[in-house]
Structure formats: C-alpha cells, structure tokens
Amino acid sequence: MTTKKITRVDGSERAPQASTFVPTAEAKAQAGKYRMYAIILWVLAFVAQIGAMAILFKKDPEIDLTTGTRAWLIVILLIDLIFLVAGSFFWKKANRLDPASKKETVKFFLQNQLGVIVAAIVFLPVVILAFIKKEYLVGAIAALFMVGGGLLSADYSPPSVEEYTRQSAYVQELMGADQVFWTKSGGKYHLYEDCQYLKRSSELFVGGTIADAYANNSKIKPDISSLCSACEKRCAKDKGWSDDHLKQVKDKALSAVQDAIQGTE
Ligand SMILES: [Zn+2]
C-alpha cells in the first residue's frame, strides 16, 4: 500500500470563488416590511379610485358635473396618484434589499416593474368610466396621472442577484473583501475611505458591502459603472497593474461569475 502524496496547486489562474448573492436575514426582513408598506399604499390608491368612480357612476352622461364636484374628483385622483407613487417608492427600495434573479425572466420583469402594472390597475378603470360618462377633462387628467405615475413607478436600473454577485466578486478580487464606501447622495461606491471624491461629503457610510450600498443609496445604479473609477485605478496602481492587466482581471472576475451563475441553472 502506497501513500499517495497530494499536492494542492493554488493556481493563480483560477477564477475567483463565485457564490451567488443572498440577502442577509435582516435585509430580507426589511424588504418584507417595505413590500408590505407598498401593498398597503397601493390598496389605498385603489380605494381612492373607487371613491372617484362612485361619484362618476352617479353622473348622468348628458348633464355636466358642477365645478365643485369636478374639483373634488381631481383631488381624489391626485390622492390616488400620491398613494401609487409612494407605494412604488417602497417597492423599489425593497427590491434593492432583496433583488430578483435575471434567470427567471418573467419574475424579474414583474418584480421590478410591478409599479407600472399597478398604475394601470389604479387608474385605467376610472379613465374608461370618465370617458363613458362624457367627463372628458377628468378622464384626461386621470389618463395623465396614469402615465406619469407609471413612469415614476418604473425601475430604470433594476437590481439583480447577478449584478450584486458580479460586482461583489470584482471588488473582492481588487481589495480582498466586499467592503465599500459611499455617501448619502453620491452616485458611486468607493474602495478607499480617503478617496478624493469622498473628501467633501459630510456623511460617509463605511464598512458595508455593495449590497448595503445599493440598499442605502438609491442614486447608486446597480451596475458595475457605479464603482468609482479613481478608486479602481488607484487599486491597480497599488498592485502595480497596467490598465490592460486591470481590464483582464475585471473581465475575468465578471465573466467567471456569469459562468458560475449560468452553471447553477
Ligand atoms: Zn473613489
């Protein structure tokens, strides 16, 4: 019997370990709370719509509403709009804490753009009824609110499990840990606390992960372009990397995660 000698080769060519992003229990609980607020606000928007429709139902199509009633209707529609947009605000916040996966295309779309669908639900019936009842001004305002509310409810840079995972892997590759710095209103996250772009900010968030940055600051787009390029260059310089080498490391880190994610399907 021979003892086999096992030599572990720590290949520097090996891709970084890609573990898919999973929100913390705390983040998930917070997301659940925000989703509940969103749903309550959306239900209230729907109730406001029913209020407006109740007034319109009673209207004779051939007799104009009084100015007072018409103004009252518009106020109710405005309340409908406020509830819709407030609900969408919380909904989008929740998605940043607990994002959907791009692998499930339909769920990804629905989860991120649910506010747009809700905009139609809380406005389209009243728009139709207003036109049936020949209340054109109210109908036009409701239609305008539906479109405006829908645009405000859409998520133009929806967060995804995949983006969080990719960026976390890249930052770990650069810095050894997923730990970034960001400010309350800046649109970037940083690798160094003393980055030149952080000097003038009065409030700095430290010690969080990329996921924390996205959850805390809605101005940071969940995209790799949100990584401060000055910090990125500084890290490469510290490591003695050329621009080309940095690009290689970046491409490798980002695509390795992409492969790992696709491989888990
Ligand atoms: Zn920076």
The major beta sheet can be summarized as: 2 strands, antiparallel
Adjacency order of strands in the biggest sheet: 1-2
Instruction: List low-pLDDT spans.
Output: 8-16
Ligands bound to this protein structure: zinc ion
Shape: elongated
Give the distance, in angstroms, between the N- and C-terminal Cα atoms. Answer: 42 Å
Portion of residues in beta strands equals under 5%
Helix-strand string: HHHHHHEEHHH
Helix content: 55-70%
What is the tally of helical segments? 9
Radius of gyration: 25 Å
Mean pLDDT: 90
Count of individual domains? 2
* Number of DSSP E strands: 2
SSE class: mainly alpha
Topology readout:
Layout: H1 25-57, H2 67-97, H3 105-121, H4 124-132, H5 136-153, H6 161-175, E1 180-183, E2 204-208, H7 210-216, H8 229-239, H9 243-263
Antiparallel strand pairs: 1-2
Helix pairs in contact: 1-2, 1-4, 2-3, 2-5, 2-7, 3-5, 4-5, 6-9
Bound molecules: zinc ion.
The site of zinc ion has 6 residues, from helix 8.
Description:
The chain is mainly alpha-helical and 265 residues long. The protein folds into two domains: 25-153, no CATH class; 161-263, no CATH class. Helices cover 61% and strands 3% of the residues. The chain has a two-stranded antiparallel sheet. The structure holds zinc ion (ZN). Zinc ion is lined by residues 190, 195, 197, 228, 230-231. Residues 190, 195, 197, 228, 230-231 line the site of zinc ion (ZN).
